[in-house]
């Protein structure tokens, strides 16, 4: 094929070569659209979201004075949802899962002041109501 292109160039058919190269480029672009994965490679599943959020909450809560050791359990209502344009190939946004509830077991969970601090931190960090959060003492 390279020899054929060289012959075309030597013969003064540069326009033909440019047209052929342009058409090949268009074909490659067209074929690459079929190969695209509709899910965003940077997105993650609901379990990853839950584990990362639990870890972040645990780290944050353990830094609050008096909380001590922390275990966090998060329950999720739905999965990560992607919102796509009409052609289903371009993601416009990603909707995070809805948090159903949070249980925090911590060493300072029996102290009302520490429980209130932890409750305030969780509700503000996750933007959920306090009725979805339970703070309790960690078993010794």
Q: What is the count of β-strands?
A: 5
Major beta sheet, specifics?
Answer: 3 strands, mixed
Shape: rod-shaped
* Uncertain runs: 37-43
Our Rg estimate from Cα atoms comes to 28 Å
The sequence of SSEs as H and E is HHHEEEEHE
Distance between the termini: 76 Å
Counting H and I runs of at least 4 residues, what is the number of helices?
4
Question: DSSP strand (E) fraction?
Answer: 15-25%
Major sheet: order of its strands? Answer: 1-4-5
Structural class designation: alpha+beta
Average pLDDT: 82
Task: State the share of residues found in helices, binned by percent.
Answer: 40-55%
Q: Care to describe what's here?
A:
This protein has 140 residues and is α+β, with helices and mostly antiparallel strands. It has four helices and five strands, in the order H-H-H-E-E-E-E-H-E. The chain has a three-stranded mixed β-sheet, with helices on one face. Strands 2-3 form a two-stranded antiparallel ribbon. The protein is rod-shaped. About 5% of the residues have low confidence.
Helices and strands, with pairings:
Blueprint: H1 2-10, H2 14-35, H3 46-62, E1 70-76, E2 81-84, E3 91-95, E4 99-106, H4 112-126, E5 133-137
List keywords for this structure.
140 residues; alpha+beta; two-stranded antiparallel ribbon; 5 strands; 21% strand; rod-shaped
Q: Summarize this, please?
A:
The chain has 140 residues and is of the alpha+beta class. It has helices at residues 2-10, 14-35, 46-62, 112-126; strands at residues 70-76, 81-84, 91-95, 99-106, 133-137. The strands form two sheets. It has a three-stranded mixed beta sheet with strand order 1-4-5, covered by helices on one side. A two-stranded antiparallel ribbon has the order 2-3.
């Amino acid at each position: 094929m390279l020899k054929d292109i060289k012959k075309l160039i030597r013969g003064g058919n540069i326009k033909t070569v440019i047209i052929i190269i342009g058409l090949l480029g268009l074909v490659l672009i067209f074929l690459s659209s079929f190969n695209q994965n509709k899910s965003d490679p940077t997105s993650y599943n609901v379990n990853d979201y839950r584990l990362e959020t639990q870890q972040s909450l645990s780290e944050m809560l353990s830094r609050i004075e008096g909380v001590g050791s922390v275990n966090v359990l998060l329950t999720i209502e739905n999965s990560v949802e992607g919102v796509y344009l009409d052609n289903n190939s371009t993601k416009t946004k990603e909707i995070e899962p809805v948090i159903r509830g949070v249980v925090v077991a911590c060493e300072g969970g029996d102290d009302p002041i520490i429980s209130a601090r932890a409750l305030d931190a969780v509700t503000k960090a996750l933007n959920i109501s306090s009725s979805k959060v339970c703070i309790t003492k960690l078993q010794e």
